[in-house]
Each structure stands twice: as structure tokens, then as C-alpha cells.
Design a protein that fits this description.
Layout (H helix, E strand, L loop, with lengths): L12 H4 L14 H11 L11 E7 L3 H9 L3 H7 L4 E8 L12 H18 L3 E5 L4 H8 L6 E10 L7 H8 L24
Antiparallel strand pairs: 1-2, 2-4, 3-4
Helix pairs in contact: 2-5
């Protein structure tokens, strides 16, 4: 496990210790943990409680399904994600089920759901690495995702960190973790005036 980074203010350990490794062990995830992780996603806030997300999930124990999801990643992500025991695609419904109108915050809500499942995973000793490097067109084709009202947004690799992984990606996992200071992104109601929260 990485050393916890220094923060400006005390934060919960689940926030500070969450990180996205590149080196994964092929140790399988128990079914009850995997189900709990994805149930946690349903408890994320979403506009009108629409829960506009859908996750396509495959474990290495189902090789054909796993390969289909792996094939949806760009080659640079396939190179390391192929070691994770579970892969998933995050997909959103572009319109509200309640009235058919466009849902402009569907991707935001998927992000909230993925963050929530990530914290549940962290609490269970697991790691989640979210990826934008995917081929949405291939995902629609290989996974039979309808094109009219569904948008493939992200992929996730889920599993246990492998401390003894090959050197190829170890440097990425061992690098220092840094974040921008509050003063660079928290402002008052005036765009250029740093807010009191910063």
C-alpha cells in the first residue's frame, strides 16, 4: 500500500488512502464483495433518483465475457488492465426514464456512482482504476449496447494491488500522489475571488 499523502486538513482514511494502481494481482474477488461494491453504486445521489447508470461487469472466471470487455479498452490500458480480476464498463442512459427528456447530468451521476462503489471497494481492501481510454464504438458492437439512448463513458479495473508485479508499471504505482491546493479551485460567487472555503 502506498504511504498516505499529506493533506491540508484531516480527511477520512477512505478518501486519503484511495488510489488507482496499475499493478493488479489475479486473486479473484469474492462474489459477496463484488455484489456489495456494485450495490454501493445504487446509493449515490442522482438527479430525480434516476440512477441513469448501467455497469457491464466480467470476471476472469468468465473468460469470453472478460475478453470482450478487455477488447473495449485502448491498447495502452489493455496492457495493464488485463491483470485485474474484474473489468467493468460504465454506461449512461442519455434521457430520463420518467419523461424522455435529455438528462444533462447523466455522466455526472455515473461519476458519483463510480466514486461511491470505489469507496466501498477501498473499505474491503480492493482498488478501482477508472479509465477514459476506451473504444465506445467497439463496446456498443461487442456488448450489444443500444446506440440510440445509451452512451459508454468509462471502464473500471477492480482488484487487489500486486506489490510484486513486473517493473513495467511499478514506477507508476510508486510515484508520489499530489493534488491541487484548495486555493486553485475553490472560489466565492465571484469567479476570480478565492472563497472562504479555500
Amino acid at each position: 500500500m502506498k504511504d498516505s499523502p499529506q493533506t491540508e486538513y484531516p480527511l477520512h482514511s477512505l478518501v486519503v488512502e484511495r488510489w488507482s494502481p496499475y499493478n493488479y494481482s489475479d486473486r479473484p474477488i469474492p462474489d459477496h464483495d463484488l455484489r456489495a461494491i456494485f450495490e454501493a453504486a445504487s446509493w449515490a445521489a442522482s438527479s430525480f433518483n434516476e440512477q441513469p447508470w448501467r455497469y457491464l461487469v466480467a470476471a476472469k472466471s468468465s473468460p469470453a465475457d472478460y475478453q470482450r470487455l478487455l477488447d473495449c479498452l485502448v491498447p495502452q490500458n489493455q496492457a495493464w488492465a488485463k491483470n485485474a480480476p474484474v473489468l467493468a464498463l460504465g454506461v449512461v442512459k442519455k434521457t430520463f426514464a420518467r419523461n424522455g427528456n435529455p438528462n444533462p447530468v447523466a455522466e455526472h451521476d455515473l461519476g458519483a456512482a463510480s466514486a461511491t462503489l470505489t469507496f466501498e471497494a477501498s473499505a474491503r481492501g480492493l482498488h478501482v482504476h477508472q479509465m477514459a481510454g476506451i473504444d465506445p464504438g467497439k463496446a456498443h458492437e461487442l456488448c450489444k449496447i443500444p446506440r440510440d439512448d445509451w452512451h459508454v463513458v468509462t471502464a473500471l479495473a477492480i482488484g487487489y494491488h500486486d506489490r510484486d508485479a513486473p517493473e513495467e508499471f511499478r514506477g507508476r504505482d510508486e510515484g508520489a500522489r499530489t493534488r491541487n491546493p484548495l486555493s486553485s479551485y475553490v472560489f466565492s460567487a465571484d469567479w476570480e475571488d478565492p472563497g472562504p472555503a479555500a
